[in-house]
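Exercise 7b. Backbone tokens:
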């Protein structure tokens, strides 16, 4: 049977909102109305019995079986309807069989209720079978809204789509039509469009609020010392931006940002330095293992000496300013064997890294300086070190730039601590790494990508303990025991595409002059830490059993790939207590184009390896282990590599004193066909191995400079071993041949002297009266055949 409840149901599947709203079919409506018409006709044919209450109907049974009657006006809404008589006249009962057959019922909202609880009245009872028409007296102000008819049970008003009416959805004077459906009054028309728009906007705002709440906006899920509320997303990234730090950090560099920088780094999370200049007046201690400090880019500028720093443009910079930075960086470089021996003097450093695995990326550490002041004493703010890493393995840096006249080092790797020594203290007097005071072990696994260091007294320093013989060491706060400083050394240290420079002051003056002029080995040996001005300095012992060819274990296993080492200072790369140090690929080590001045103001040549500069790569005669140069563009100045039997060179180029002539394939080996160029100042001697050590061979020599009369050239026979030989085959008159080792100043005055010795070496001494550039090549081996020498061709 078709009913109004089924024809005008809310949803396609009754009671299932997900089945979509139901659209009444005309055939069902016609069937429903036909039923109403049949009831009406039956009612009218029976005389039209009408009662005002069900009670009055039940009291009147004087009607025949199947008689019909209407109840209209009963205060109980459910009692109103169409009834049928069951039983004979005077007996039986009345049964409700249908709603009153009214298609439309007009209701009136006269304001008796409230804006959100409407009370309406009708002249006839309402039912679920009739469409009800009513006015709205006043705007609703909340949601949901209810309506009751004739004082009946309140019904929740639902829109055509089944939603509650929003605030403002019903406005005064509006007409709505609907049907009673259970406990709701379902209106056929919808709420006003302005309310729909308002509801949509409110929904949008609610969604945004929910998303913001999910991120922690306005929720104190992570608050730094500044009081800045952090979002959950930012907290998940563990990034602390300098602009969120306390103390009003100033990216313009006009105001001090020390408080903010200290607070940010102390959190131990990833730190972000935005574009700008952030000034610090105090050292910044990094003591959280694995912490990352990242900028937004180092900066740019590619001027040469003397304007490189003056013309540089920064991007993300920590600027070290002032002259009162506390000196808190402690090291154990000096040898101490008794209580009275001094400790290392404390230093200050802009970034003091005292934790394993720290990373610094895309950041410039800049020393404040007024470059308009051209005086040679103008070094800017008084800071010792740009970045120091204290005996900590696993440090990484990418695009780290340390620029300015730092008094000691630009970037310092301290390898002077040891396992078991009392822990060094942080700036509050607490032990570093209190959970394990024996972590201080070495600096293995350190890697630098694209570092740019310029202006410091020593650009890049890797330094350990000073001790040239095994012995006992007394750490401050500890007891005397075996010297274990730098126990794990500094192996696996790799530098890629670096740019390492020295002081190269913008005034054009050098920082210091050599201790002895002309340069002597004794003068080199007298150059201590305070005297050294260099782009790169490696020096220190370690307890890991490094090379002992020079008496002690030392720092070892360091590689520089395509790294420029350049300076106008008296040293470029000084490799002292170190072993297995390699320069691979382009390693430009020549001086800048402009000529520097010495400390007295006299113009000098930084390529003068007799009076001015200790060569491109400088080593110690007894403390340095093996040095390897592969395609080193600048070559090496032989005079200042004392132990050439520890030097491996391949494919070197440039104006050098030793190129690929010396030790290309293995220690102390040269083969037939090898050639090289030597530059010898007047009264200077040099030597290099003969193929096979004692092998006899033909040697050719040519001189690239000097008039014909003074340009030695020719071919000769040489043999070393127990019976050394040096004989001319075809040579100029100004070449003298002899045997025995030749020292500087040895040989015939006015000539070049060629000699062999029992040590397997060929000696050349230049006493021609001026510097000579000579090419030497081992042409062919010799063999003895029936007492006569024969050239053996390959």
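Sequence design result:
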């Amino acid at each position: 049977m078709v009913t109004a409840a089924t024809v005008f149901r809310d949803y396609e599947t009754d009671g299932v909102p997900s089945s979509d709203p139901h659209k009444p079919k005309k055939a069902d409506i016609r069937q429903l109305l036909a039923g109403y018409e049949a009831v009406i006709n039956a009612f009218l044919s029976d005389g039209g019995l009408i009662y005002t209450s069900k009670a009055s109907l039940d009291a009147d049974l004087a009607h025949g079986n199947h008689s019909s009657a209407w109840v209209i006006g009963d205060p109980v809404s459910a009692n109103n309807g169409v009834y049928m008589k069951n039983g004979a006249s005077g007996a039986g009962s009345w049964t409700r069989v249908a709603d009153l057959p009214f298609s439309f019922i007009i209701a009136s909202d006269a304001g008796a209720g409230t804006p959100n609880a409407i009370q309406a009245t009708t002249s006839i009872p309402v039912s679920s079978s009739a469409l009800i028409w009513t006015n709205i007296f006043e705007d609703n102000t909340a949601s949901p809204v209810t309506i009751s008819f004739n004082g009946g049970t309140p019904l929740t008003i639902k829109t055509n789509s089944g939603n509650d009416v929003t605030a403002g959805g019903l406005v005064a004077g509006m007409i709505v039509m609907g049907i009673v459906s259970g406990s709701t009054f379902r209106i056929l028309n919808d709420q006003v469009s302005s309310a729909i728009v308002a509801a949509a906007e409110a929904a949008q705002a609610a969604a945004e609020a929910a998303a913001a709440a999910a991120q922690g906006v306005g929720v104190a899920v992570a608050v730094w010392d500044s009081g800045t509320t952090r979002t959950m997303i930012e907290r998940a990234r563990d990034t602390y931006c300098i602009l969120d730090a306390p103390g009003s950090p100033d990216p313009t560099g006009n105001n001090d940002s020390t408080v903010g920088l200290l607070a940010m780094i102390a959190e131990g999370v990833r730190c972000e330095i935005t574009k700008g200049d952030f000034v610090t007046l105090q050292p910044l201690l990094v003591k959280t293992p694995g912490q990352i400090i990242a900028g937004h880019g180092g900066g740019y500028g590619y001027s040469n000496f003397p304007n490189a720093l003056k013309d540089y443009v920064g991007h993300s910079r920590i600027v070290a300013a002032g002259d009162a930075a506390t000196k808190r960086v402690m090291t154990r470089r000096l040898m101490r064997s008794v209580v009275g021996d001094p400790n290392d003097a404390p230093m200050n450093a802009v970034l003091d890294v005292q934790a394993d695995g720290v990373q610094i990326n895309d950041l410039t550490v800049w020393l404040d300086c007024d470059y308009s002041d051209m005086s040679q004493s103008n070094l800017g703010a008084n800071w010792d070190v740009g970045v120091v890493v204290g005996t900590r393995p696993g440090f990484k840096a990418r695009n780290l730039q340390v620029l300015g006249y730092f008094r000691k080092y630009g970037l310092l790797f301290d390898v002077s601590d040891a396992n078991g020594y009392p822990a060094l203290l942080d700036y509050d007097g607490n032990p570093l790494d209190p959970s394990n005071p024996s972590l201080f072990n070495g600096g293995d696994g350190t890697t630098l990508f694209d570092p740019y260091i310029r202006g410091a007294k020593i650009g890049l320093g890797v330094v350990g303990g000073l001790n040239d013989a095994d012995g006992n060491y007394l750490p401050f706060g500890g007891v005397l025991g075996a010297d274990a400083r730098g126990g794990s050394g500094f192996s696996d240290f790799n530098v890629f595409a670096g740019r390492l420079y020295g002081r190269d002051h913008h005034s054009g003056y050098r920082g210091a002059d050599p201790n002895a002029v002309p340069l002597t080995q004794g003068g080199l040996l007298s150059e201590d830490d305070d005297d050294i001005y260099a782009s790169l300095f490696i020096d220190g012992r370690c307890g890991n059993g490094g090379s002992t060819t020079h008496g002690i274990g030392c720092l070892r296993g360091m590689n520089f790939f395509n790294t420029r080492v350049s300076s106008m200072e008296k040293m470029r790369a000084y490799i002292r207590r170190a072993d297995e140090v390699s320069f691979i690929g382009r390693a430009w080590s020549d001086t800048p184009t402009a000529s520097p001045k010495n400390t007295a103001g006299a113009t000098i040549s930084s390529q003068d390896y007799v009076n001015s500069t200790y060569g491109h790569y400088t080593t110690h005669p007894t403390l340095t282990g093996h040095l390897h140069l592969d395609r080193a563009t600048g070559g090496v100045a032989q005079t200042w590599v004392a132990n050439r039997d520890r030097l491996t060179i391949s494919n070197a180029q440039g104006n050098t004193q030793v190129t690929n002539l010396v030790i290309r394939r293995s220690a102390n080996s040269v083969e037939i066909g090898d050639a090289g160029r030597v530059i010898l100042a007047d009264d200077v001697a040099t030597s290099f191995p003969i193929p096979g050590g004692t092998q006899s061979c033909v040697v050719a020599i040519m001189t690239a400079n000097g008039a014909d009369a003074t340009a030695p050239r020719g071919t000769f026979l040489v043999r070393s071993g127990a019976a050394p030989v040096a004989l001319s085959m075809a040579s100029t008159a100004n070449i003298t041949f002899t045997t025995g080792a030749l020292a500087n100043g040895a040989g015939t005055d006015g000539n070049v002297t060629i000699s062999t010795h029992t040590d397997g070496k060929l000696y050349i001494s230049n006493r021609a009266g001026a510097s000579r550039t000579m090419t030497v090549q081992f042409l062919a081996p010799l063999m003895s055949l029936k007492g006569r020498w024969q050239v053996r061709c390959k």
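Instructor comment: The two ends are 117 Å apart (CA to CA). The helical segments are 4-7, 26-45, 54-58, 193-215, 232-237, 258-266, 521-525.
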